[in-house]
């Protein structure tokens, strides 16, 4: 990989990852602000701002934004997470300057028009309602809030319908002024990119942006606990989780191997024991959430009203065994899955641009692929057992939604995990 990094005078970091053999480029701006930076009364403002960025600037109305990027066959999108907000595009290589100009425009010059804001509030409220009607979606919000109660990291990215309905325009303006400074952003591009030209384009588009104030996030405090909601559904949706590790933790790659081994594919323990041997579920998998100062290790399963009585103890049994029963063969298989996923992502310009942005935001540098592969290869069975003990010794977080009458008490679940 040919990665270059330049920091502009205002603190904006501009990085490129040149790829021969492609005719496209992916480019985006990642802002170090998200749900974790919101006060309780403005929960959802980051996501609302992301939506409003596309609704018109001083130079372009909403239709013009869509038409200009699509006139060259490009794609423009954005997302909000708990620690970041991203605005990104994929275009043909010659249209990279246009993509940067549009992204810079929507980030810096959004008018936040009152009529557009009223419409977008209604759109997001519909999005929230849709999420609430999707049990295997909303259960993750309940899980997050149970793991991190009464703090920004535990609140939903979209906020609540009530908060969004009453969100004043001033809240968006103030949040953008406080968090959208150049020193809190990185601009990355991957594909057929000339770094010097990218820096010149970035300077023209963002050079006038202030560095912005520093802001400190409140530290996360994992608690865990039990959430249950009775609903008239065909399935029980269940999440069992534990405190994970942050990005910079020494066990980052070991925990990634642990997650893959337990529930990362069709050869994983959970898939084989729960689905293949017993037919208790259609869907079961592990997931990891990494943050700057904490993390989550979770297991999701969807099952029937009666099957859940057998399912939860079986999951607990598989989790508990990992403290002492891991073999080198399955560790090697999990390592291979992780490395293949990592290397396959290198074929995508958008994946490489996002990976570069994340590494700069978290580590302040790009991580050579050889360094990552070496750390994955260093994971052994003994270290997986040690990491499992560390993770599974934390207070569990359990969240369920659906016909839950056959699920045993939280205390009994906790006992099974020890």
Description:
By secondary structure, the chain is an alpha+beta fold. 44% of the residues lie in helices and 19% in strands. It is built from 16 helices and 11 strands. The strands form 2 sheets. The chain has a 6-stranded mixed β-sheet, with helices on both faces. Strand 9 (281-290) and strand 10 (295-303) form a beta hairpin. Helix 10 (269-276) runs antiparallel to helix 11. The relative contact order is 0.16. The model has no long low-confidence stretch (mean pLDDT 96).
Strand count, sense and barrel status of the largest sheet are: 6 strands, mixed
Beta-strand percentage? 15-25%
Helix count, DSSP H or I runs of 4 or more residues: 16
What's the helical proportion of residues? 40-55%
Uncertain runs: none
How many beta-strand segments? 11
Query: Could you tell me the mean pLDDT?
Result: 96
What coarse outline follows from CA principal-axis ratios? globular
- The SS-based structural class is alpha+beta
Evaluate the radius of gyration. 23 Å
- The H-and-E topology, N to C, reads as EEEHHEEHHHHHEHEEHHEEHHHHHEH
The N- and C-terminal alpha carbons lie at a distance of 45 Å
Read across the widest sheet, the strand sequence of neighbours is 1-2-6-3-5-4
